[in-house]
Automatic annotation (TrEMBL):
Cited PANTHER family: BLL2464 PROTEIN, SLR2013 PROTEIN
Location of the DUF58 domain: 197-382
Domain of life per record: Bacteria
Entry keyword annotation includes Nucleotidyltransferase: no
InterPro entries given in the database record: DUF58 (IPR002881), vWFA_dom_sf (IPR036465)
Protein name: DUF58 domain-containing protein
Species of origin: Marichromatium gracile
Key words, A-Z: Membrane, Transmembrane, Transmembrane helix
Signal peptide from the UniProt entry: none
Annotated TM spans: 7-25, 31-50
Biological classification of the source: Bacteria, Pseudomonadati, Pseudomonadota, Gammaproteobacteria, Chromatiales
Protein backbone atom coordinates (compact mmCIF):
# COMPACT_ATOMS: atom_id res chain seq x y z
CA UNK A 1 0.00 0.00 0.00
CA UNK A 2 1.27 3.43 -0.90
CA UNK A 3 -0.32 6.82 -0.23
CA UNK A 4 -1.32 8.93 -3.17
CA UNK A 5 -0.63 12.66 -3.56
CA UNK A 6 -4.22 13.33 -2.45
CA UNK A 7 -3.48 11.84 0.99
CA UNK A 8 -0.28 13.86 1.22
CA UNK A 9 -2.21 17.08 0.62
CA UNK A 10 -4.68 16.16 3.39
CA UNK A 11 -1.79 15.78 5.82
CA UNK A 12 -0.37 19.09 4.63
CA UNK A 13 -3.69 20.73 5.53
CA UNK A 14 -3.65 19.09 8.98
CA UNK A 15 -0.11 20.39 9.52
CA UNK A 16 -1.13 23.94 8.55
CA UNK A 17 -3.97 23.86 11.10
CA UNK A 18 -1.41 22.79 13.74
CA UNK A 19 0.78 25.78 12.87
CA UNK A 20 -2.22 28.08 13.16
CA UNK A 21 -3.12 26.54 16.55
CA UNK A 22 0.33 27.46 17.89
CA UNK A 23 -0.43 31.16 17.47
CA UNK A 24 -4.19 30.96 17.88
CA UNK A 25 -5.15 28.44 20.62
CA UNK A 26 -8.82 28.54 19.58
CA UNK A 27 -7.88 26.46 16.52
CA UNK A 28 -6.79 23.56 18.74
CA UNK A 29 -10.19 21.79 18.81
CA UNK A 30 -10.34 22.15 15.03
CA UNK A 31 -6.98 20.44 14.73
CA UNK A 32 -8.11 17.56 16.98
CA UNK A 33 -11.38 17.16 15.10
CA UNK A 34 -9.71 17.30 11.72
CA UNK A 35 -7.13 14.75 12.83
CA UNK A 36 -9.74 12.31 14.18
CA UNK A 37 -11.86 12.54 11.06
CA UNK A 38 -8.77 12.14 8.87
CA UNK A 39 -7.71 9.01 10.77
CA UNK A 40 -11.14 7.42 10.38
CA UNK A 41 -11.31 8.23 6.67
CA UNK A 42 -7.76 7.07 5.94
CA UNK A 43 -8.09 3.79 7.87
CA UNK A 44 -11.48 3.03 6.34
CA UNK A 45 -10.21 3.77 2.84
CA UNK A 46 -7.16 1.54 3.22
CA UNK A 47 -9.26 -1.25 4.75
CA UNK A 48 -11.63 -1.25 1.78
CA UNK A 49 -8.69 -1.36 -0.64
CA UNK A 50 -7.01 -4.17 1.29
CA UNK A 51 -10.19 -6.28 1.09
CA UNK A 52 -10.77 -5.59 -2.62
CA UNK A 53 -10.16 -8.73 -4.73
CA UNK A 54 -7.56 -8.44 -7.49
CA UNK A 55 -9.06 -8.38 -11.02
CA UNK A 56 -8.37 -11.18 -13.47
CA UNK A 57 -6.40 -10.46 -16.66
CA UNK A 58 -6.28 -12.34 -19.95
CA UNK A 59 -3.80 -11.49 -22.71
CA UNK A 60 -4.35 -11.94 -26.45
CA UNK A 61 -1.01 -12.12 -28.23
CA UNK A 62 0.11 -13.63 -31.56
CA UNK A 63 2.42 -16.62 -31.16
CA UNK A 64 4.83 -15.19 -33.75
CA UNK A 65 5.87 -11.55 -34.03
CA UNK A 66 7.73 -9.95 -36.90
CA UNK A 67 10.83 -7.89 -36.20
CA UNK A 68 10.34 -4.19 -36.88
CA UNK A 69 6.59 -4.47 -37.53
CA UNK A 70 3.88 -3.09 -35.25
CA UNK A 71 1.38 -5.60 -33.89
CA UNK A 72 -1.68 -5.34 -31.66
CA UNK A 73 -1.93 -6.89 -28.19
CA UNK A 74 -5.16 -7.11 -26.23
CA UNK A 75 -5.72 -7.29 -22.47
CA UNK A 76 -9.10 -8.24 -21.01
CA UNK A 77 -9.48 -7.19 -17.35
CA UNK A 78 -12.35 -8.73 -15.36
CA UNK A 79 -13.44 -7.42 -11.98
CA UNK A 80 -14.76 -9.68 -9.19
CA UNK A 81 -15.38 -6.77 -6.83
CA UNK A 82 -18.83 -5.44 -6.02
CA UNK A 83 -17.72 -1.84 -6.28
CA UNK A 84 -16.39 0.30 -9.07
CA UNK A 85 -12.64 -0.04 -9.55
CA UNK A 86 -10.16 2.47 -10.86
CA UNK A 87 -6.81 0.97 -11.79
CA UNK A 88 -3.66 1.46 -13.85
CA UNK A 89 -2.56 -1.42 -16.12
CA UNK A 90 0.89 -2.13 -17.53
CA UNK A 91 1.85 -5.27 -19.43
CA UNK A 92 5.34 -6.59 -18.63
CA UNK A 93 6.61 -6.79 -22.20
CA UNK A 94 10.31 -7.28 -23.07
CA UNK A 95 12.29 -4.16 -22.25
CA UNK A 96 13.74 -3.79 -25.77
CA UNK A 97 10.32 -3.52 -27.44
CA UNK A 98 8.83 -0.22 -28.56
CA UNK A 99 5.36 0.24 -27.07
CA UNK A 100 2.46 2.63 -27.65
CA UNK A 101 -0.56 2.78 -25.35
CA UNK A 102 0.91 1.72 -22.00
CA UNK A 103 0.41 2.23 -19.11
CA UNK A 104 -3.35 2.72 -19.40
CA UNK A 105 -6.06 3.75 -16.94
CA UNK A 106 -9.24 1.69 -16.67
CA UNK A 107 -12.54 2.14 -14.87
CA UNK A 108 -14.34 -1.12 -14.15
CA UNK A 109 -17.97 -1.34 -13.16
CA UNK A 110 -18.95 -3.80 -10.40
CA UNK A 111 -18.36 -7.37 -11.66
CA UNK A 112 -17.64 -5.89 -15.07
CA UNK A 113 -14.82 -6.19 -17.59
CA UNK A 114 -12.93 -3.92 -19.95
CA UNK A 115 -10.63 -4.48 -22.90
CA UNK A 116 -7.35 -2.67 -23.37
CA UNK A 117 -5.54 -2.67 -26.73
CA UNK A 118 -1.98 -1.46 -27.19
CA UNK A 119 0.68 -1.79 -29.87
CA UNK A 120 4.26 -2.97 -29.72
CA UNK A 121 7.13 -3.36 -32.16
CA UNK A 122 9.85 -5.97 -31.57
CA UNK A 123 13.38 -4.73 -32.10
CA UNK A 124 15.35 -7.92 -31.53
CA UNK A 125 14.77 -11.45 -32.82
CA UNK A 126 14.54 -14.69 -30.88
CA UNK A 127 12.39 -16.14 -28.12
CA UNK A 128 10.97 -13.57 -25.72
CA UNK A 129 8.81 -13.86 -22.62
CA UNK A 130 5.97 -11.67 -21.38
CA UNK A 131 6.35 -12.17 -17.63
CA UNK A 132 3.01 -10.86 -16.40
CA UNK A 133 0.87 -7.79 -15.83
CA UNK A 134 1.28 -4.98 -13.30
CA UNK A 135 -1.91 -3.56 -11.74
CA UNK A 136 -2.22 -0.47 -9.57
CA UNK A 137 -5.58 -0.44 -7.72
CA UNK A 138 -6.87 2.79 -6.17
CA UNK A 139 -8.97 3.00 -3.02
CA UNK A 140 -12.55 4.35 -3.25
CA UNK A 141 -11.48 7.84 -2.15
CA UNK A 142 -8.22 7.72 -4.10
CA UNK A 143 -6.04 8.07 -0.97
CA UNK A 144 -4.17 4.78 -1.35
CA UNK A 145 -2.71 2.79 -4.20
CA UNK A 146 -2.11 -0.93 -4.10
CA UNK A 147 0.27 -2.50 -6.58
CA UNK A 148 -0.25 -6.11 -7.61
CA UNK A 149 1.80 -8.14 -10.08
CA UNK A 150 -0.05 -10.97 -11.83
CA UNK A 151 2.12 -13.83 -13.07
CA UNK A 152 0.99 -14.34 -16.64
CA UNK A 153 3.97 -15.84 -18.49
CA UNK A 154 3.74 -16.25 -22.24
CA UNK A 155 6.58 -17.18 -24.58
CA UNK A 156 6.52 -15.94 -28.17
CA UNK A 157 9.08 -15.88 -30.94
CA UNK A 158 10.22 -12.89 -32.94
CA UNK A 159 11.16 -13.81 -36.49
CA UNK A 160 12.94 -11.70 -39.12
CA UNK A 161 10.79 -9.21 -40.98
CA UNK A 162 8.06 -11.20 -42.69
CA UNK A 163 7.63 -8.42 -45.23
CA UNK A 164 10.77 -9.72 -46.97
CA UNK A 165 9.30 -13.21 -47.14
CA UNK A 166 6.01 -11.93 -48.54
CA UNK A 167 7.93 -9.89 -51.07
CA UNK A 168 9.82 -12.99 -52.17
CA UNK A 169 6.57 -14.87 -52.72
CA UNK A 170 5.25 -11.95 -54.76
CA UNK A 171 8.42 -11.92 -56.85
CA UNK A 172 8.15 -15.61 -57.61
CA UNK A 173 4.49 -15.15 -58.58
CA UNK A 174 5.62 -12.49 -61.11
CA UNK A 175 3.49 -9.60 -59.93
CA UNK A 176 3.30 -6.59 -62.19
CA UNK A 177 5.35 -4.30 -59.95
CA UNK A 178 7.78 -5.71 -57.43
CA UNK A 179 9.07 -3.70 -54.47
CA UNK A 180 12.45 -5.44 -54.41
CA UNK A 181 13.33 -4.33 -57.94
CA UNK A 182 13.77 -7.79 -59.51
CA UNK A 183 11.74 -9.52 -62.21
CA UNK A 184 12.01 -13.20 -63.14
CA UNK A 185 11.92 -13.93 -66.89
CA UNK A 186 11.55 -16.91 -69.20
CA UNK A 187 14.77 -18.13 -70.77
CA UNK A 188 15.17 -18.25 -74.51
CA UNK A 189 18.18 -20.53 -74.48
CA UNK A 190 18.34 -24.30 -74.78
CA UNK A 191 19.45 -25.16 -71.26
CA UNK A 192 16.87 -25.75 -68.55
CA UNK A 193 13.36 -27.20 -68.38
CA UNK A 194 11.19 -27.33 -71.46
CA UNK A 195 8.29 -24.89 -71.15
CA UNK A 196 6.30 -24.72 -74.41
CA UNK A 197 6.36 -24.53 -78.22
CA UNK A 198 5.88 -21.21 -79.94
CA UNK A 199 6.43 -19.52 -83.29
CA UNK A 200 9.98 -18.79 -84.30
CA UNK A 201 11.31 -15.35 -83.32
CA UNK A 202 14.29 -13.47 -84.62
CA UNK A 203 17.29 -14.32 -82.48
CA UNK A 204 16.29 -17.90 -81.63
CA UNK A 205 19.13 -20.42 -81.83
CA UNK A 206 19.13 -22.98 -84.61
CA UNK A 207 19.15 -25.91 -82.19
CA UNK A 208 16.10 -24.37 -80.52
CA UNK A 209 13.90 -25.12 -83.58
CA UNK A 210 11.64 -28.16 -83.31
CA UNK A 211 11.86 -29.58 -86.85
CA UNK A 212 9.05 -32.11 -86.49
CA UNK A 213 6.63 -29.50 -85.17
CA UNK A 214 7.79 -27.09 -87.88
CA UNK A 215 7.07 -29.70 -90.57
CA UNK A 216 3.59 -30.32 -89.25
CA UNK A 217 2.77 -26.62 -88.93
CA UNK A 218 4.61 -25.71 -92.15
CA UNK A 219 6.23 -22.76 -90.38
CA UNK A 220 9.25 -22.49 -88.03
CA UNK A 221 8.40 -23.57 -84.47
CA UNK A 222 10.82 -23.02 -81.58
CA UNK A 223 11.08 -24.58 -78.15
CA UNK A 224 10.94 -22.23 -75.18
CA UNK A 225 12.70 -23.11 -71.96
CA UNK A 226 12.54 -21.80 -68.46
CA UNK A 227 15.07 -21.86 -65.67
CA UNK A 228 16.04 -25.31 -64.54
CA UNK A 229 14.31 -26.55 -61.43
CA UNK A 230 15.24 -29.05 -58.78
CA UNK A 231 18.56 -27.33 -58.06
CA UNK A 232 20.13 -26.62 -54.68
CA UNK A 233 20.67 -23.29 -52.96
CA UNK A 234 22.58 -23.33 -49.67
CA UNK A 235 23.26 -20.29 -47.49
CA UNK A 236 26.53 -20.22 -45.57
CA UNK A 237 25.86 -17.60 -42.90
CA UNK A 238 28.54 -15.95 -40.77
CA UNK A 239 27.40 -15.44 -37.15
CA UNK A 240 30.78 -14.32 -35.81
CA UNK A 241 31.82 -11.09 -34.16
CA UNK A 242 32.12 -9.13 -37.40
CA UNK A 243 28.37 -9.47 -37.92
CA UNK A 244 27.66 -7.61 -34.66
CA UNK A 245 28.00 -4.23 -36.34
CA UNK A 246 24.88 -2.05 -36.22
CA UNK A 247 23.95 0.32 -38.99
CA UNK A 248 20.78 1.87 -40.44
CA UNK A 249 18.90 0.85 -37.31
CA UNK A 250 19.57 -2.88 -37.73
CA UNK A 251 22.46 -5.29 -37.41
CA UNK A 252 24.36 -6.94 -40.24
CA UNK A 253 22.93 -10.31 -39.28
CA UNK A 254 19.39 -8.92 -39.39
CA UNK A 255 19.94 -7.67 -42.94
CA UNK A 256 21.48 -11.00 -43.89
CA UNK A 257 18.47 -12.92 -42.61
CA UNK A 258 16.06 -10.61 -44.43
CA UNK A 259 17.93 -11.21 -47.69
CA UNK A 260 18.13 -14.93 -46.97
CA UNK A 261 14.37 -15.24 -46.57
CA UNK A 262 13.70 -13.20 -49.69
CA UNK A 263 15.91 -15.34 -51.92
CA UNK A 264 14.70 -18.54 -50.23
CA UNK A 265 11.12 -17.57 -51.10
CA UNK A 266 12.16 -17.08 -54.72
CA UNK A 267 14.01 -20.39 -54.85
CA UNK A 268 11.18 -22.40 -53.30
CA UNK A 269 8.66 -20.97 -55.76
CA UNK A 270 10.96 -21.91 -58.64
CA UNK A 271 11.28 -25.49 -57.43
CA UNK A 272 14.79 -25.31 -55.97
CA UNK A 273 15.83 -26.91 -52.70
CA UNK A 274 16.94 -24.46 -50.01
CA UNK A 275 19.28 -25.12 -47.08
CA UNK A 276 21.27 -23.25 -44.45
CA UNK A 277 24.49 -23.68 -42.51
CA UNK A 278 25.69 -21.17 -39.92
CA UNK A 279 29.17 -20.83 -38.48
CA UNK A 280 31.14 -18.53 -36.21
CA UNK A 281 30.06 -19.55 -32.71
CA UNK A 282 26.62 -20.84 -33.69
CA UNK A 283 26.64 -23.99 -35.80
CA UNK A 284 23.34 -25.05 -37.37
CA UNK A 285 22.64 -27.24 -40.35
CA UNK A 286 19.38 -27.31 -42.28
CA UNK A 287 19.70 -29.71 -45.24
CA UNK A 288 18.35 -28.50 -48.60
CA UNK A 289 14.64 -29.23 -49.02
CA UNK A 290 11.94 -28.27 -51.51
CA UNK A 291 8.49 -26.77 -51.08
CA UNK A 292 6.80 -24.48 -48.60
CA UNK A 293 7.52 -26.80 -45.62
CA UNK A 294 11.21 -26.27 -46.35
CA UNK A 295 10.74 -22.51 -46.13
CA UNK A 296 8.98 -22.82 -42.78
CA UNK A 297 11.72 -25.14 -41.54
CA UNK A 298 14.35 -22.65 -42.64
CA UNK A 299 12.56 -19.88 -40.75
CA UNK A 300 12.37 -22.04 -37.62
CA UNK A 301 16.11 -22.75 -37.80
CA UNK A 302 17.33 -19.21 -38.32
CA UNK A 303 14.90 -16.80 -36.65
CA UNK A 304 16.79 -16.73 -33.32
CA UNK A 305 20.34 -16.60 -34.67
CA UNK A 306 22.42 -13.94 -32.96
CA UNK A 307 25.98 -12.75 -33.63
CA UNK A 308 28.54 -14.09 -31.18
CA UNK A 309 31.88 -12.85 -29.89
CA UNK A 310 33.84 -15.63 -31.58
CA UNK A 311 36.01 -15.28 -34.66
CA UNK A 312 34.49 -17.00 -37.69
CA UNK A 313 36.59 -19.46 -39.70
CA UNK A 314 35.31 -19.52 -43.30
CA UNK A 315 37.75 -22.27 -44.35
CA UNK A 316 36.55 -24.65 -41.64
CA UNK A 317 32.94 -23.86 -42.53
CA UNK A 318 33.61 -24.47 -46.23
CA UNK A 319 35.25 -27.83 -45.48
CA UNK A 320 32.29 -28.88 -43.33
CA UNK A 321 29.79 -27.83 -45.99
CA UNK A 322 31.78 -29.61 -48.70
CA UNK A 323 31.38 -32.87 -46.80
CA UNK A 324 27.63 -32.39 -46.38
CA UNK A 325 26.77 -31.44 -49.96
CA UNK A 326 26.75 -34.30 -52.45
CA UNK A 327 25.32 -32.40 -55.41
CA UNK A 328 26.42 -29.25 -57.16
CA UNK A 329 24.77 -26.24 -55.53
CA UNK A 330 24.75 -22.48 -55.45
CA UNK A 331 26.45 -21.60 -52.16
CA UNK A 332 25.68 -18.08 -50.91
CA UNK A 333 28.27 -17.01 -48.34
CA UNK A 334 27.16 -13.94 -46.38
CA UNK A 335 29.84 -12.34 -44.22
CA UNK A 336 31.48 -9.09 -43.23
CA UNK A 337 35.10 -9.62 -44.27
CA UNK A 338 38.10 -7.86 -42.80
CA UNK A 339 41.75 -7.85 -43.83
CA UNK A 340 42.56 -10.72 -41.49
CA UNK A 341 39.86 -12.85 -43.18
CA UNK A 342 41.25 -12.49 -46.71
CA UNK A 343 43.36 -15.63 -46.75
CA UNK A 344 40.60 -17.75 -45.22
CA UNK A 345 38.01 -16.47 -47.69
CA UNK A 346 40.25 -17.19 -50.66
CA UNK A 347 40.95 -20.72 -49.43
CA UNK A 348 37.26 -21.30 -48.79
CA UNK A 349 36.43 -20.03 -52.29
CA UNK A 350 39.04 -22.36 -53.80
CA UNK A 351 37.62 -25.33 -51.91
CA UNK A 352 33.94 -24.69 -52.66
CA UNK A 353 34.63 -23.65 -56.26
CA UNK A 354 35.72 -27.18 -57.15
CA UNK A 355 32.20 -28.59 -57.02
CA UNK A 356 29.85 -25.64 -56.47
CA UNK A 357 29.09 -22.14 -57.64
CA UNK A 358 29.98 -19.66 -54.91
CA UNK A 359 28.27 -16.31 -54.43
CA UNK A 360 29.98 -14.13 -51.82
CA UNK A 361 28.01 -11.27 -50.26
CA UNK A 362 30.57 -9.17 -48.39
CA UNK A 363 28.93 -6.46 -46.25
CA UNK A 364 30.46 -3.07 -45.55
CA UNK A 365 29.94 -0.93 -42.45
CA UNK A 366 27.75 2.11 -42.97
CA UNK A 367 29.76 4.06 -40.37
CA UNK A 368 32.96 3.67 -42.41
CA UNK A 369 31.22 4.79 -45.57
CA UNK A 370 29.84 7.85 -43.79
CA UNK A 371 33.25 8.65 -42.31
CA UNK A 372 34.79 8.47 -45.77
CA UNK A 373 32.43 11.20 -46.98
CA UNK A 374 33.15 13.59 -44.11
CA UNK A 375 34.98 16.83 -44.95
CA UNK A 376 38.72 17.01 -44.23
CA UNK A 377 39.51 19.94 -41.92
CA UNK A 378 42.72 19.01 -40.10
CA UNK A 379 45.50 16.44 -39.93
CA UNK A 380 43.41 13.95 -37.99
CA UNK A 381 40.68 14.07 -40.63
CA UNK A 382 43.27 13.64 -43.38
CA UNK A 383 44.80 10.58 -41.72
CA UNK A 384 41.36 9.06 -41.24
CA UNK A 385 40.42 9.75 -44.86
CA UNK A 386 43.53 8.09 -46.30
CA UNK A 387 43.21 5.11 -43.95
CA UNK A 388 39.66 4.56 -45.15
CA UNK A 389 40.71 4.96 -48.78
CA UNK A 390 43.36 2.29 -48.26
CA UNK A 391 40.75 0.04 -46.63
CA UNK A 392 38.38 0.43 -49.56
CA UNK A 393 41.16 -0.21 -52.08
CA UNK A 394 42.14 -3.41 -50.28
CA UNK A 395 38.52 -4.56 -50.44
CA UNK A 396 38.40 -3.80 -54.15
CA UNK A 397 41.58 -5.79 -54.81
CA UNK A 398 40.31 -8.70 -52.72
CA UNK A 399 36.99 -8.78 -54.57
CA UNK A 400 38.76 -8.63 -57.94
CA UNK A 401 40.98 -11.54 -56.94
CA UNK A 402 37.96 -13.63 -55.96
CA UNK A 403 36.15 -12.79 -59.21
CA UNK A 404 39.15 -14.07 -61.16
CA UNK A 405 38.68 -17.37 -59.34
CA UNK A 406 35.12 -17.60 -60.65
CA UNK A 407 33.39 -16.35 -57.51
CA UNK A 408 30.30 -14.17 -57.83
CA UNK A 409 31.01 -11.22 -55.50
CA UNK A 410 28.66 -8.61 -54.05
CA UNK A 411 30.41 -5.80 -52.15
CA UNK A 412 27.65 -3.66 -50.68
CA UNK A 413 25.94 -2.12 -47.67
CA UNK A 414 23.49 -4.21 -45.60
CA UNK A 415 20.45 -2.22 -46.79
CA UNK A 416 21.34 -3.07 -50.40
CA UNK A 417 21.69 -6.79 -49.79
CA UNK A 418 18.11 -8.14 -50.24
CA UNK A 419 17.43 -6.73 -53.71
CA UNK A 420 21.01 -7.21 -54.95
CA UNK A 421 21.13 -10.83 -53.80
CA UNK A 422 17.75 -11.59 -55.39
CA UNK A 423 18.85 -9.95 -58.65
CA UNK A 424 22.05 -11.99 -58.77
CA UNK A 425 20.25 -15.25 -57.97
CA UNK A 426 17.77 -14.74 -60.81
CA UNK A 427 20.59 -13.73 -63.17
CA UNK A 428 22.40 -16.97 -62.35
CA UNK A 429 19.24 -18.93 -63.01
CA UNK A 430 18.64 -17.21 -66.32
CA UNK A 431 22.21 -17.77 -67.42
CA UNK A 432 22.05 -21.50 -66.57
CA UNK A 433 25.25 -21.31 -64.55
CA UNK A 434 24.14 -24.13 -62.27
Amino acid sequence: MRPTPALSWLFVGWTLIALVAVWWPAAGPLWWGYGGLLAVVVLGDVLVLWRTPVPEVERTLPGTLSQGEWCAVGLVVRSTARRRLRLLVHDLHPATFEVAGLPASLLLSPLGEARLDYRLRPVTRGDVVFAGVDLALYSPLGLWRRRQRLVLPERVRVVPALAALRRGVALAAQDARLGAGVHPHQRRGSDGDFHQLRDYRAGDLLRQIDWKASARARRPISREYRESRDQQLVFLLDCGRHMRHLGDGAGHLDAALAALLLVAGLAVRQGDAVGLMSYGGTSRWCPPRQGQPALRRLLDDCYDLQPTLEAADPLLAAATLQQRLRRRALVVLITCGRDEDQEGLEQAARLLGRDHLLLLADLRERSLEDALNQPVRDLSDALRFHALRDWRERRRVRCARLRRRGVQVLDLLPAQLPSALADRYLAIKRAGML
